[in-house]
UniProtKB/TrEMBL annotation:
Signal peptide: none
Protein name: AIM24 family protein
Matches recorded under InterPro entries: AIM24 (IPR002838), AIM24_sf (IPR036983), Trp_RNA-bd_attenuator-like_dom (IPR016031)
SUPFAM superfamilies: TRAP-like
PANTHER family in the cross-refs: ALTERED INHERITANCE OF MITOCHONDRIA PROTEIN 24, MITOCHONDRIAL (PTHR38074:SF1)
Domain of life: Bacteria
Length: 226
């Protein structure tokens, strides 16, 4: 039996964050290199790792971070190997190098605690969503892990002058320097009788990337805030 399962055994550590299969994140934990992770995402760990739910840095954002958007975070500290997952979703590991990324809260799995982060208003979308839309923006040099419901596509918006349109329910992340605006439309579902079908897309332009998952999340992840 051990031989049959050998291919699933832990692999040697090669980076701070890396995939173990498509749906699991392996994090090399060291003292002084704390991590923020989605609460409840820990599936296993080796060594000595401690968890602090709702740490002060997260509580400071609580007034802006509604329960309906994104997920609470826990602070992870210690030495060892930490394994994280999110209900079998694909995990994408990103190494920021003095760069920034805007991520839907529900797609944020983990990131280095020393990175700068905050809840940001999505510019150009206020008239399409009342008081506006918000995402989590992360910047600096360090590691970030995001999730996708299926293998995502990364669209390079800098290859032409045409705008890139994305259904907000399929949007995972994007370069925050991109220009964003909204466009009203009708979903194809309206043609077969499932609701009014009225919806909008997010139009991106400029130099940067947009990460899109092949699934429309049923929850309203980009919601207006009071």
């Amino acid at each position: 039996m051990n031989q049959q399962l050998a291919g699933y055994a832990p692999t040697p550590v090669t980076a701070r964050m890396e995939n173990h299969g498509r749906a699991m994140l392996k994090v090399a934990m060291q003292s002084g290199q704390d991590l923020f992770a989605r609460t409840g995402s820990m599936v296993a760990y080796e060594g000595f790792v401690q968890y602090e739910p709702n740490p002060p840095a997260v509580r400071q954002m609580a007034s802006q971070w509604l329960t309906g958007e994104g997920a609470p975070l826990m602070k992870c500290t210690g030495d060892g190997l930490l394994y994280l997952a999110d209900y079998g979703a694909d995990v994408v590991v990103i190494n920021l190098n003095n760069d920034a990324l805007s991520v839907n809260g529900t797609n944020l799995l983990a990131f280095d605690a020393h990175l700068q982060w905050g809840v940001e208003r999505v510019k150009g979308m206020a008239k399409f969503a009342g008081q506006g839309l918000f995402n989590v923006q992360i910047s600096g040099t360090g590691w970030v892990a995001i999730t996708s419901r299926g293998t995502p596509i990364v669209v390079d918006c800098g290859r032409g002058e045409d705008e890139t349109y994305v259904d907000p329910d399929a949007l995972v992340a994007w370069s925050p320097n991109l220009k964003v605006k909204g466009k009203r439309s009708f979903k194809a579902s309206s043609m077969i009788g499932r609701g009014s079908g009225e919806a909008y897309q997010m139009a991106f332009s400029g130099q940067g990337i947009v990460v899109v998952q092949p699934s429309e999340d049923s929850t309203d992840r980009l919601r207006a805030r009071g």
